[in-house]
Structures are given as C-alpha cells and as structure tokens.
Amino acid sequence: MRYFYLGILLLFAVNLLGLSEVDSLYLNYQHSTSAEAFANAAYELSIYYRAKSLPDSAIFYLNRSISHAHQTQDEEIIGKYYVKGGKIYGLLNMRDAADSLYHKALSYKLSHDDYCRTLSNLVTLSQLPEDVVRIQEYIEKLEKEEPY
How many Cβ atoms sit within 10 Å of the Cβ of residue 95? Predict the structure, then answer.
C-alpha cells in the first residue's frame, strides 16, 4: 500500500512540474517588455505545445510570435521568426505551411546561417521539379550577394 501512495505522489509531482513549466513560459510571455521578447516567448510556448502534441495551441503561439516579430520592423528578426515557424510546421508534418513560411523568410534579410538553414529545409521539403528550380534561384541569389 505504501508503494501505491508513493506512486500517486510521484505522479502528482510530475504533473506539478509540467504545470510549472507552462506557467513559467506563459509568465515570460505575459511580462515581456519588447516586441522581440514577446516574439521569443510566444515561440517558446509554441515549442512547448508542439512537444505536448497540442498542434492548435502550437500554431496559435507560432502566429503570435510572427506577429510580434513584425512589430519590431526589423527585417532580420522577422525573417528569423518565419524560419522558426517553418521549423514548427515541419515538425507538425504540415509541409505546405512550412514551405510557405520558408519562402516568406527568404524575402526578408536573413543572417547567412538562417539563409542556409532555410535552403536546407526547403530541399528537404521539395517534392516537385519546380521546387528545385526555385531553390536553385535562391542559391544563385546567395552567391551573388555574398561571394566566398
């Protein structure tokens, strides 16, 4: 009987820790002081909900993160959150949405790493010959802008 109660106590503790994690993430979101901090906190919540197999909540906070990124009016931040959004949609097996966000990301100023990561993810998602042609155009654009 003692093990039964210990088991119940352990389950309660595990659930309590899970609640404190989302509470902490939500408090970070609620008390953010800048648009970029809001974007990051919303993205962290989308990751949490994706991991908990709650895709609607993950997408809700993902859209919030992109919206807050737009409020910064910083091209690199906006592009970065489109890349992150593509990653979440990819993890949710929503290939078309991921593809769309990756292409939107490429229309913004991205860091070299984000640009290369986005191209790599697009190659992974590509299924049609037209996809490969578009990716080749992005690679040529990258080569023109940043000679190595």
Answer: 14
Cα separation, 109 vs 123, in Å, equals: 20
Chain segment 94-103, per-residue pLDDT in tens: 888 888 888 8
Q: Is the separation of the CB atoms in 110 and 80 below 8 Å?
A: yes
CA dist 80 and 85 (Å) reads: 9
pTM: 0.70
Tell me whether residue 65 is exposed, middle or buried, using C-beta atoms within 10 angstroms of its C-beta: 0 to 12, 13 to 18, 19 or more: buried
Q: What is the DSSP string of 70-89?
A: HHHT-HHHHHHHHHHHHHHH
Residues 6+ apart with CB under 8 A from 79: 105, 106, 107, 108, 109, 110, 114
Per-residue pLDDT band for 10 (boundaries 50, 70, 90) equals low
